[in-house]
Fold Helix-turn-helix domain-containing protein.
Amino acid sequence: MKHFKTLSELHQFNGYPPPEHPMVSLLRCTQKCSFGSSEFTGDFYMIGLKKMKAGFIRYGRTKYDGDSGSMYFIKPRQVAEMRNLELEEDGFAIYIHEDYLSGHPLHSEIRKYPYFEYEANEALHLSPKEEQIIWALYRSIETEYNNNPDEYSKEIILGHVEGILRYSQRFYKRQFVNRSGLSGRIISRFTESLTKYVENGQLAKTGLPTVKFMAAELNLSASYLSDLLKQETGKTALEHIHIFLISEAKHLLNGPDTTVAEIAYSLGFDNPPYFSRLFKKEVGVSPNQYKKFSLN
């Protein structure tokens, strides 16, 4: 697998002209795009807008064949592959070396945008008006990028990049709302998978189900699943798992012959005190108090 430590290496490998800046690269793509067909990683972030007609983009676990305006976000050292891309319209890619963010607030802020953890098939689909906003920000970056650099250049470029990131966060939330029907089906499948996990005895065998495991069962990334559930229900995937297990615990606590510790272990908790704290947080009383009340 090819790893690019610098943007110059990326450009040279793909036959592009050298980048204007060693830490930032802007690529415009009209219709057919030439990318290396092998898997690669790099020490940079990539923000791309591409309306694909043919070819595919892959990062994370899945391959994405696209036919609409989509934005893609790739973080440093994430495995990616872009092959035989043919676009319906103009597209762009912004590459930012992680070292370029050093000393700037975006160095830590960029990690707070969860869509860098999404899979390719969870790309951001833009409306025409949203595309215009993103293109306007890109052109502002392009104008500054092609000017003679001075002490303000980095701040201005990263300010516009941050604008793209914030708008993308807003547009993703809109996408979740517009896909509320899909969200409802995912919630149902999520609950079905949890039920199956419990009924098959997986709690005793492998312990508590993780968000990553549940997401994989639904062919989603963990971050996308949590964000979708948070938007739809106000609770993350982990909170939904906890609520489900607390519901199971309530049922088991109605039995007179089981201790709280036994119930905790049966539900996959290695630490009964942690189970008790979680139960009290969700229910308002401790498991022992709940058990006492339920038996009276």
Summary: The chain has a mean pLDDT of 85.
